[in-house]
Amino acid sequence: MPGGPDSVAAALARTLGEAPHLLDDPDAVRGRVRAHRFDITRSGRLACLETAVCLGADALDSRQMGLLAAPVGEAQVARLGARALVATAGEALTAAELGLVHSLPDGVRGLVPGPFYDGREAATALVGELIRRRRATGSWYGDRVADDRVALGVLDGTPAVGLLLLRLLDPATAPIATLR
Predict the structure, then answer these.
(1) Is the pLDDT of residue 15 over 80?
(2) Quick one: which of 108, 135, 61, 160 has its CA closest to 51?
(3) In 3D, which of 34, 38, 30, 117 has the Cα closest to residue 73?
């Protein structure tokens, strides 16, 4: 979950989106949220995503939108552990619901046909990699010592895999990461 200044920005964005009358100066708060620079960590990406969900992608500075682009380069995906792979695919689906389109950097071999891709294409490619790894290791989390039956985290455990697969099949399924 987001922490520090990123969580404050996400909370302000949610307040702006759902109850702006609670703020003395909503326009000033909107400007501060837009000016905020989210951290490049997972929690920063979640806060950035929450802000985009609450206020729309245009409420963010265009440089911040890069945080919401799922890594689809072959080398990038190969470096992701199973937990990061599940979390990133879930974030990509939520970004797709916002209508965001990303571009594959020149010279990067990607898991998507590119040069442009949306979060749904990225999530499908990432889930394909997750399934390939499961077939190879017999586990959703082959890079962990613990058995899948004890990986119960709703954001990055076995239930997260189930929710991710359900969201791919049924776009109406709510994402748990943005608590909607």
Answers:
(1) yes
(2) 61
(3) 117
Determine the Cα–Cα distance for residues 40 and 166; give it in Å rounded to an integer: 27
- 139-161 pLDDT, tens per residue? 998 888 888 888 888 777 888 88
**Whose CA is closest to 103, among 129, 140, 73, 139?**
73
- Give the bridge partners for 32, in sequence order: none
What CA–CA distance (Å, rounded) separates 1 from 80?
Answer: 19
Rounded to two decimals, the pTM is 0.70
Residues 6+ apart with CB under 8 A from 41: none
**Alpha carbons 180 and 178: distance in angstroms, whole number:** 6
Q: Are 54 and 17 in contact (CB under 8 A)?
A: yes
Q: Which two tokens stand for residue 149?
A: 């039956």
DSSP 8-state class, residue 104: P
Please state whether the peptide bond connecting residue 71 to the residue before it is cis, i.e. omega within 30 degrees of 0.
Answer: no
Query: What are the φ and ψ backbone dihedral angles of 135, each rounded to 5 degrees?
Result: -65, -35
